Amino acid sequence: MFFKEWPVLLVDDEPDVLAISKLAMKNFAVYGLPLKIYTAVSKADAIRLLNDNAEVGCALAVAFLDVVMEDDKAGLELCDYIRNDTGNKLTQIFIRTGQSGLAPEREVVDKYDINGYFTKVEATEDKLYSLVKSAVRHYLSSGMALATVELLNNLMAAGGSRRKLLYALSSVGGLSADQKDTPRWLIVDDQVLFSEEVGGQKALSLRDKLHNLPSIPLNPFGDSYVKGNDGHQMIEVAKSAAKSATSYLFKTCFAPPEHVVILMHSFVTGLAIAWGQSREDADIA
Fold first, then answer.
1. Which of 25, 169, 198, 201 has the smallest number of Cβ neighbours within 10 A?
2. pLDDT tens digits for range 70-108
3. What is 6-138's CATH topology?
4. Residues 6+ apart with CB under 8 A from 134
5. Is 22 exposed, middle or buried (0-12, 13-18, 19+ CB in 10 A)?
6. Is the pTM of this model over 0.85?
7. Closest Cα to residue 65, out of 90, 92, 34, 89?
């Protein structure tokens, strides 16, 4: 959600294939963001990159893996390493091969957790464009869905204690250093969470500024989404008997698609309910 670019990994032992693929993808963009292309010339080289580079290891959107490299199944073994050894189920993996007889499509699709299979002859610029575009969209959607489920589970587990809720929200509320360019603020009943006084006033002022912009209704109960012209956005849940008034302000390098906004709204709603049903720990009998 807070990407500045989409990391893509190309693995092939043919330098010409890597060079041509990088050139073809150079100007690709998804949701207005460019690709950041990494390359490796072998399974071993790719594994080193996955282990040593945090972006590749933790935020890789798409991988194109050649089958035959160090041996006839190096690419398939690399796929297995990504899925099972690292536990990465989100990266969209495509197998491409110049020797389809060594890795028949149906056998590969049945045995390995991949998102697509194609031969190098089929790897035209248009083909790569459509694969990258659809893969990044799916990566973002799946990642946001899993993150939302995890956050909601954490909120439910922390229910009743606002101290525990704050701990469950620490990854969302603007504490991390990597949020400098994509800040996030949570405001509940006019209280800015995780913020000193100056930062809190800034968040409240930004919320008031966004209030003056046109909003998109999210349900019949007064919840809304606002998109500013400078990248700042806000999802707001209206106060009710069951929910605290809750605003989630954030800045991104791209406008999230509608289904991502809906996922984010479900998280903010969960927070509004959990906070309204919880107390300060000193008040808990």
1. 198
2. 988 899 999 999 999 999 999 999 998 876 556 666 778
3. Rossmann fold (3.40.50)
4. none
5. middle
6. yes
7. 92
